[in-house]
Amino acid sequence: MPPPPDPALLRGMPLFAGLGADALADAVGLARPRLHPRGTAIFTQGEPAAAGHALIDGRVKIVQTGPDGQQVVMRFIGPGEMFGTLAIFTDGLYPADAVAVADCVELSWPAAAMTELMDRHPMIARNALSIIGGRLRELQNRLREVATERVERRIAHALLRLVRQAGRRVEAGVEIDFPLSRQDVAEMTGTTLHTVSRTLSAWESQGIVESGRQQVVIRKPHALVAIAEDLPPVPKRE
Amino acid sequence: MPPPPDPALLRGMPLFAGLGADALADAVGLARPRLHPRGTAIFTQGEPAAAGHALIDGRVKIVQTGPDGQQVVMRFIGPGEMFGTLAIFTDGLYPADAVAVADCVELSWPAAAMTELMDRHPMIARNALSIIGGRLRELQNRLREVATERVERRIAHALLRLVRQAGRRVEAGVEIDFPLSRQDVAEMTGTTLHTVSRTLSAWESQGIVESGRQQVVIRKPHALVAIAEDLPPVPKRE
DNA sequence: CGTAGTCTTGAATGACCTCAAACGCTGTGG
DNA sequence: CCACAGCGTTTGAGGTCATTCAAGACTACG
């Protein structure tokens, strides 16, 4: 029996924003903490959604697999974010895999507890709606990108999104703060790892990024933005 | 001042499912009915989201426009469906255009009324969560399709989705029950109207569809499914 | 030190886009 | 009633971006 989690963990989570101390205690009381070593699955596509989840520490990759085995990375989850919660309110099956790409600590709430919480504290439902709304919007943007933009721009957009979500300042620029392979980027942008590799190589030779094995550092974010927005590269005067 | 709408209009709307008569009356009392002739905009991308909407009759196209003017059709809304409601809970700006593709009757609720309703009747919030969850899932599927499948399969999937949502049985097969141009299909699938036209022509010569000006009839839905699922076409014995 | 996973790079093919032109409905106004 | 304009559609030809196929190099780890 793990020790009861600290209510302070929920502070700062968008899902529980604006709640009083009593409500937070209520929520934390129903939560179950769990550890997931890097590389393990937290839940699997098609499995019944027994619980909603929130990440305390680590990084989780949400991956959908198509009928023919094609994989698409739906998003990466960072500390403080909820995931796998929506399935409770739809058909009750997880629509994707959740894989720990770093050692993870998570809280989970059994489905019944989650719906109860939302009934007792409507603010939680509203927060959930807002979070999901944001994700829906992001997904719409990605759909538009994949549907209308060239590969290079899509990769630029994907990296910028990751920088915003998981960027960490280092001497050389901004580093994406978890292991990220070319394959991952390819599955985020609807292309192949070959094309991603070529693109990153080209950028590397232009000094825009530095990248190695499962690791990417952006040296010139503005240049990446220029590519993403399809601006002329390095517009000198005139 | 239009006459107060009939509470019966809300019956059968997923957003108000499971509510008592009093709650329905409450909701209907705050709603404002409106008419939108075919071709007019109901709201516009970037405009403040003053209200949430529900369609009574007609058909609405939700279109997102990118920075360079590229358009993507996010979805079609049919009678009974809500739309443009999520913006209230996120940044307060509509993320896309809503255009009446047929003469429309809609109800709308001012933003404040919508949040009030959800607080008074948590069931509405839960319903909204479920609806949005379904849309998020659909969007994930489309993203996967656009990212991994060839154009022909994507078009097949798009048509099948439209059939499910707006199919009407006719002598020749199943008709998509509103004006739908090649351009629309192209913007749903991330391709060009030229490719859509070629594809439909090919299918027409195989007797799978019949299509004309802004109109599509599917004669052999199973053949379309076979294309969508990438099965061998018409697998005879063996 | 071998093995497996990640990454790089080259060459060839092809799916789809772009460019271009023409056709046929539909509705309008003379 | 007919002529015409506008829009949606069809179809061809050429070009290209990105995939596919293929081979090899690098790195981490047991």
TrEMBL record, chains A, B:
Keywords: DNA-binding, Transcription, Transcription regulation
A UniProt-annotated Pfam family: cNMP_binding
Annotated ranges, domain HTH crp-type: 149-222
Molecular function GO labels: DNA binding; DNA-binding transcription factor activity
Superkingdom, natural source: Bacteria
Residue stretches making up the Cyclic nucleotide-binding domain: 15-104
Name recorded for this polypeptide: Crp/Fnr family transcriptional regulator
Species this chain originates from: Azospirillum lipoferum
